């Protein structure tokens, strides 16, 4: 039998899943649009961002410094996440999603890369945030030739 309590619990889980999916998208939007306020809002104050086995940023200040360094290094970044799965456990959750990222280098060339994000989430005061994000299986492709727009052809022999 369906009760008000069971419906309330189900609704709470649906709302949590939607909030966690939004959180993953806000991470990408914050990074790509250089929106430091949005970027900061996705992390717990004691968060850890592990971008590779030898690059680990601990605490919101360190994480913000790291993304600002990326912004100085790359004129344009574009992240796309897919296959986001979430396992809820009360006020904590675990998630995983695949990411593809396109990055423009200062000389105009582009690099395509990506990997998988493994996340630990925490709900504090009714707001979900990333407490730990680890990049696994990262990859980068060789830089592509610069392009100025649609229809441009580079280095085609006569």
Automatic annotation (TrEMBL):
Domain SnoaL-like intervals: 12-134
Superkingdom, taxonomy of origin: Bacteria
Pfam families: SnoaL_4 (PF13577)
Signal peptide: none
InterPro entries: NTF2-like_dom_sf, SnoaL-like
Name of the protein in question: SnoaL-like domain-containing protein
UniProt source species: Virgisporangium ochraceum
